[in-house]
């Protein structure tokens, strides 16, 4: 559904993305991983057309983003940004209701959808509280509920949900909630592209993983073939070990810090 | 935690407004009994005062209050800053400069008053404010759109430039002109006449039509520009439209009644505290409350030192500033995060 082809981005003469290509197919979860400043958020903003590209193309269901009618695009593609700037005293419910702007489904259906997403995110208690008074994690849950409500119902074409570090302020219970939610939502008419820092989270929720390093796509493929000791060492400069959860058989990545890693050496040189 | 729903507040203000307007008609240096309405043969002089002085003045203060308060609400939404004010985008400063220039040139060229009922001073103010807003907008718009923070900074710079030009002209002007300039800048409703009311009504209709159906998009803008974009809101077109509409409203308004500060700042703030930030009710409720408050402030200005009058801008500033500081201290969460 989403095809990114050879995207290059240059800002003030500096190349930030070099010929990055990435596909998202219907019904899959793709995790985007990489160190700080590797271009993850930049890649997201080229998808939405906010960042102009030097070369390359982005197509969503066979059309460039510009060719889409704005409201129709908003019904098929929702994006959770890393940071929110809302400082006005909307209630939690009112923030989520904003997601229904591109739809013309009427008050009743909208209210039912808002109730549903509030329940999914364990956020019923936040619905009448004023958004600016909420904690970082609570605000993030409301924003996540908002983008869910935007693409809650099936539309003409499969929908895509892009989440840029959705769980950075979440406590452990809500991280697990997010994992279950993402796996539960994905189906043949909804895909998720998710930017993550937590490798274990990527292992447990993604079908495929793309690793970005210094503006280049380092590798992309099935989660288990990409999350390897060598790749993590090369992209993040961190050594790790793999453990298997005895109950589920799932791979768990343990970071090693018992000796000097390559990254530290690099930092000392700088 | 919210005192009223938006709908309740609008109904309440819709009922209070006409009562305040009626009361304002019978307040002033000349005592006119409200019973004059019921007399078949009333005192002719009282009727003239009511028809030619009081009524246009009450209507004009209401129009100005509506437009200033709504402009404030729109700008606060556009800048996503509850402390934004029409003076922020340079409208008031530009209008002052335009008016001063008109006073200076008008006296040397001896252009008569006129131009569809507007004096040369008023035209100058309108042109000045439009120019200032256009300049702020042009300077802050880049290839990747308009950045709100850049625009705020440019707004400050343009306001400073306009103030400097204003001072320069004050330096050149003689005593009589200087007095007229400073009187005009304080905000003044005593020039109210039917021509101004007519012009103000036309402007109000255009203002409301341009804002029609933009409330939902403004709600989305509060989330942030890119979030609004992701919700299908045509952000750049919306920003252009909102800047145009506030420049028109504030420019014409300042031209007719001078600089009246704090109405655009305080009224939307109050409405948000009472019934929340949803622009679908915030815009009409701010308009109504702004109209009511300015009618009250003007009535006060007419009676405090009767038979003389205070400029209404002095009243709004004197009452507005302490009130605003109080609000900020009590509800500091409103602007905590930015």
Q: Please, could you describe this protein's structure?
A:
The complex is a heterodimer of chains A (270) and B (338). Chain A has a single domain (2-227), classed as Rossmann fold (3-Layer(aba) Sandwich). The model of chain A has no long low-confidence stretch (mean pLDDT 90). In chain A, strands 6-7-8-3-9-10 form a 6-stranded mixed β-sheet, sandwiched between helices. In chain A, helix 6 (172-185) links the parallel strand 7 and strand 8 (190-195). In chain A, 34% of the residues lie in helices and 27% in strands. By secondary structure, chain A is of the alpha/beta class. Chain B is mainly alpha-helical. Chain B is built from 13 helices and 2 strands. Chain B has helices at 6-25, 44-78, 91-109, 120-140, 148-172, 175-186, 194-211, 215-222, 225-230, 235-257, 263-275, 279-303, 312-330; strands spanning 141-142, 145-146. A two-stranded antiparallel sheet of chain B has the order 1-2. The longest helix of chain B has 35 residues, at 44-78. Chain B is globular, with a radius of gyration of 20 Å. The chains are: A alpha/beta (270), B mainly alpha (338).
Rg of chain B, please? Answer: 20 Å
- CATH architectural designation of chain A: 3-Layer(aba) Sandwich
CATH-wise, what's the superfamily of chain A?
P-loop containing nucleotide triphosphate hydrolases
The CATH topology label of chain A is: Rossmann fold
Q: What strand line-up does the widest sheet of chain A have?
A: 6-7-8-3-9-10
Task: Count structural domains of chain A.
Answer: 1
Largest sheet of chain A: 6 strands, mixed
Largest interface: A-B, 33 and 30 residues
Q: What do we call the CATH topology of chain B? A: ABC transporter involved in vitamin B12 uptake, BtuC
Low-confidence runs of chain B (pLDDT<50, min 5 residues)? Answer: 109-117, 333-338
* Termini Cα gap of chain A: 42 Å
Separate helix tally of chain A: 10
**What is the beta-strand fraction of chain B?**
under 5%
The top level CATH class name of chain A: Alpha Beta
Q: Helical amount among residues of chain B, as a percent range? A: over 70%
Q: Average pLDDT value of chain B?
A: 81
According to CATH, the homologous superfamily of chain B is: ABC transporter involved in vitamin B12 uptake, BtuC
Order of helices and strands of chain A: EEEHEEHEHHHEHEHEEHHEEH
- Which stretches of chain A are low in confidence, meaning pLDDT under 50 for 5 or more residues running? none
The helix count of chain B comes to 13
